[in-house]
Write a structure and sequence with these properties.
This protein has 297 residues and is mainly β. It has 2 domains: 142 residues, Immunoglobulin-like; 137 residues, endopeptidase fold (from Nostoc punctiforme) (Alpha-Beta Complex), CATH 3.90.1720. The strands form 4 sheets. Strands 1, 2, 6, 7, 8, 10, 11 and 20 form an 8-stranded antiparallel beta sheet that branches. A 6-stranded antiparallel beta sheet has the order 14-19-15-16-17-18. A 4-stranded antiparallel beta sheet has the order 3-4-5-9, with no helix packed on it.
Amino acid sequence: MVAKKTARPHRSLLVVLLAVPAFVATSFATASPAAAAPIGNPSLEIPVGCPGARGVIQIEWEGTRSAKVHWELTDTSSDGKSPVIKIAARDESGAGTSWVFQNGDVAFVINGGYDDSVSGGGNSWDPAGLAQFNHVEVKVSNGTSAQGTTCSVTKNAYNYTRLAYQYALNQIDKRYVLGAEGPDAYDCSGLVKYAYNRVANFPGWGSVRSSAQQYEWARSEANNNNADLGNLKSRDAIRVSRSQLKVGDLIFYSGHVGFYAGGGQLYSAMSPSAGIGYTSIDYTTPLGYYRVVGVTG
C-alpha cells in the first residue's frame, strides 16, 4: 500500500448539496459539514478527478456486503465552477444504491472557490438491496450541469478480496489434490484461481496458474504502480506490509499461496493430509503480502 497522505486542513466554506436522483443535477441546498477523519488503513485509496476537481476515495472492504468509504473533494480551479462528487454501491449487474451525503442528498457540490476542500464518510456502509457489494462507483465533475460541466471522470473500484475469500471459504470441506482447480478438489493456487474466477467482473487469471506464477504476476503488477495508484487496471495488485494485512489478502511462500484469514492465520489448500483449512501465517517464512485489486474508468 502506498504511504497514507496527511489529511489537508479544511477551511470554512460554503457547501452546496444537490438533491437529485443519482448522477442527475436539478436542485440545491446548503450546509457546512465538518471535515471527516480519513481511514487509517484502507483497502484502497485512489484519485478520482480531472482538471478543476480533485477527488480522493478511500475504501475499506468489510465483507461481501459492507465497506467503509471516505471521500475528499477539492476545487483546483479559479474558473468559478463548483466541483461535484457522487458515489454509489453496485452489485455485479451495475444496479445499486447511491451514497447519501450529510444532508440526505446524493450529490455533493463545493462552492467555496479555488483550493477549498471538503471530506466525509468513514463509517460502515451496508447498502440496502445488494446481495453482494461488488464495487464502488465514484463520479467527479468540475462543475454542475447548470454551470456547464467540461470534465467528468467515473471510476469503479472492485471488492475482489472479500468476495474471493468467501468463495474460497465455501470450499473448506473439499479435498486437496495437486493440480486440481475445483470444484471437488484443489491445490493451493487452484483454490485461489477458482475463488477469484467466481467473482463477478473479475477479468480472469489467463495463463497465471501456479503459486510461483501468481507471485511473479503480483510482484510485477505492484512494481508498475504509480505512487498515487492512479494507474490501476481491472486486474491489478498492490504490495502491502504485514501490519497492513486485511482478510482476503494473498500471502506467498516458496511453493505455496493462501488467503489471510485475520488473527495471524492463513487459509489455504495446504496438503493431502492437512486438506483445506487454517494454519499460522508463520508456518514458514513468507515471500510477500499482496492485495488483488481492480479499478476501471
